C-alpha cells in the first residue's frame, strides 16, 4: 500500500509550481512587427491626408518693349488665303503616263509634274519632219534645174547677138529660166511651211509634259496614271481637268470681313496683330495691304487684305485667324518710355472689388501670393498692368473662386511636362 501511495503522489500535478520561462527573442520580434505597422500607417495617413493644393495653369508676365504696345482699335476674324494658287492641267487631252508629284512636295518653276502618252504627238511630229525633208529636196531639185536654165539662157544671149541662133530659141530659154525661178520660190515657201509645221508638232510633243508654272507646294494630287485628262473636261465625269494644285506659300495673306460700321477705323499700312486659331499663343505681326472698295450687302461687311510679315511653314491656306487692328506707331520723339508689363487677361481676377493676380511664390513654388493691380490698356487678349507685377513673374490663369492668398497650388500635369 505504501508503495502504491507513493507512486500516486508522484503522478499528482503541483499547481503551485512556477511557469516555465518565456523566450525574450519572440517578444522582441512581436514589438518590431507592431512598430513597423505603426510607421506604415503613419506614412499612409501623411500621404493621403496631406493637402495637395489646387491644380492651376500658369503663364509668364512679359515686360512691354520700348515704345509700348499699341492698343487694339478693332478685332475681326478671317482666313489665310494664297494670292498665287493654280490647278495645273495639260494643254491637250490625253492619257496620263506618269505622275511625278505628291501632296506636300515642293516644286520649282518649270519642274515636270506629269507626262501624257506621247504616241499621237510623236507620230504627228514624224509626219511633219518627213514633209519638211520632202519640201527641201524639191527645192534643191528646182535649184539645180534653175542653175542649168540660167547658164543656157546666158549662152543663147551671146549667140543670138551674133545671129547664130534664132530669137525664138533664146526667148524659150529665158521663159524656162523665169519659170524655174518661180518654181524655186514656191518650193522654198513650201519648205518654210513644212518647217513651221514641224515646230508646231514639237510644241504638241512638249504639251504632253506638264510643268509647274511657278514655285510652290503641292496641296492636291488630282490624277493617276492611266486616266484621261483634258483642260475642257470633254469626256464628262470620267475625265480629269487637272494634274494637281500648287500654292505659292510666299503669297499667303489674310482676308477678313469688317463690318460696315467699323470700316472707318481701318487704314492702309495699319499695323495688325494676327493670331491663328491653331496657335492661339503665337502673335504674328502683320499689316493692312488694302481695303477692297466693295461691300457685301448680304453680310454688311467690307473685305480687308492683310499682309503677313512672318513667313513660317505653320501658316497654311484656309486656316482660321483672328486679327487685331492696332493704333499706328507713334514717332520716336513722342513715344512714352516703357511702363508696366503685359499679362494675359485670364490671369486677372476680382477680389473685394479690386483687380488682383495670383503669383506663384514660395521656396517650392507651391503657394500663391495675391497682389493688387493697376490696369492700363487692353492689348488684344492681354492687359497692360502698370503696378503690381514685374517681368518674369508667373501668374495663375483663370484663378478659381476658392483660391486665396497663401493657398497651396500645384501646376497642371500638361504644363509640368512641358517645363
From TrEMBL:
Entry keyword Transmembrane helix: yes
User: Has keyword Coiled coil?
Assistant: yes
* Alphabetic keyword roster: Coiled coil, Membrane, Transmembrane, Transmembrane helix, Transport
From which domain of life does this come? Bacteria
Q: Where is the signal peptide?
A: none
**What protein family is recorded?**
Belongs to the membrane fusion protein (MFP) (TC 8.A.1) family.
> What's the protein name?
Efflux RND transporter periplasmic adaptor subunit
Amino acid at each position: 500500500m505504501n508503495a502504491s501511495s507513493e507512486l500516486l503522489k508522484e503522478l499528482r500535478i503541483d499547481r503551485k509550481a512556477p511557469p516555465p520561462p518565456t523566450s525574450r527573442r519572440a517578444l522582441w520580434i512581436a514589438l518590431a512587427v507592431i512598430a513597423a505597422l505603426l510607421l506604415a500607417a503613419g506614412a499612409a495617413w501623411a500621404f493621403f491626408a496631406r493637402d495637395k493644393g489646387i491644380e492651376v495653369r500658369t503663364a509668364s508676365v512679359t515686360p512691354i518693349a520700348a515704345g509700348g504696345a499699341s492698343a487694339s482699335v478693332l478685332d475681326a476674324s478671317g482666313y489665310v488665303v494664297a494670292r498665287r494658287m493654280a490647278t495645273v492641267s495639260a494643254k491637250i487631252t490625253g492619257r496620263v503616263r506618269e505622275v511625278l508629284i505628291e501632296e506636300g512636295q515642293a516644286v520649282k518653276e518649270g519642274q515636270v509634274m506629269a507626262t501624257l502618252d506621247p504616241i499621237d504627238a510623236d507620230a504627228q511630229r514624224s509626219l511633219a519632219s518627213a514633209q519638211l525633208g520632202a519640201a527641201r529636196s524639191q527645192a534643191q531639185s528646182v535649184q539645180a534645174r534653175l542653175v542649168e536654165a540660167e547658164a543656157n539662157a546666158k549662152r543663147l544671149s551671146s549667140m543670138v547677138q551674133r545671129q547664130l541662133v534664132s530669137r525664138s530659141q533664146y526667148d524659150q530659154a529665158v521663159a524656162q529660166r523665169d519659170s524655174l525661178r518661180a518654181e524655186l520660190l514656191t518650193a522654198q515657201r513650201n519648205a518654210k511651211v513644212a518647217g513651221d509645221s514641224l515646230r508646231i508638232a514639237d510644241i504638241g510633243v512638249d504639251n504632253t509634259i506638264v510643268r509647274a508654272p511657278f514655285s510652290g507646294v503641292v496641296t492636291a494630287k488630282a490624277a493617276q496614271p492611266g486616266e484621261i485628262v483634258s483642260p475642257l473636261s470633254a469626256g464628262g465625269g470620267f475625265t480629269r481637268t487637272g494634274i494637281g494644285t500648287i500654292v505659292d506659300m510666299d503669297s499667303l495673306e489674310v482676308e477678313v470681313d469688317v463690318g460696315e460700321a467699323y470700316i472707318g477705323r481701318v487704314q492702309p499700312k495699319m499695323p495688325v496683330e494676327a493670331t491663328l486659331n491653331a496657335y492661339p499663343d503665337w502673335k504674328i505681326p502683320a499689316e493692312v495691304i488694302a481695303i477692297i472698295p466693295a461691300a457685301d450687302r448680304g453680310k454688311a461687311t467690307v473685305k480687308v487684305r492683310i499682309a503677313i510679315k512672318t513667313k513660317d511653314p505653320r501658316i497654311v491656306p484656309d486656316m482660321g485667324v483672328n486679327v487685331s487692328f492696332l493704333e499706328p506707331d507713334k514717332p520716336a520723339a513722342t513715344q512714352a518710355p516703357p511702363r508696366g508689363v503685359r499679362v494675359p487677361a485670364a490671369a486677372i481676377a476680382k477680389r473685394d472689388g479690386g483687380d488682383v493676380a495670383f503669383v506663384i511664390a514660395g521656396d517650392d513654388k507651391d503657394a500663391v501670393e495675391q497682389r493688387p493691380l493697376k490696369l492700363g490698356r487692353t492689348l488684344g487678349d492681354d492687359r497692360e498692368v502698370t503696378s503690381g507685377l514685374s517681368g518674369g513673374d508667373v501668374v495663375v490663369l483663370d484663378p478659381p473662386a476658392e483660391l486665396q492668398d497663401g493657398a497651396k497650388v500645384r501646376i497642371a500635369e500638361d504644363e509640368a511636362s512641358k517645363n
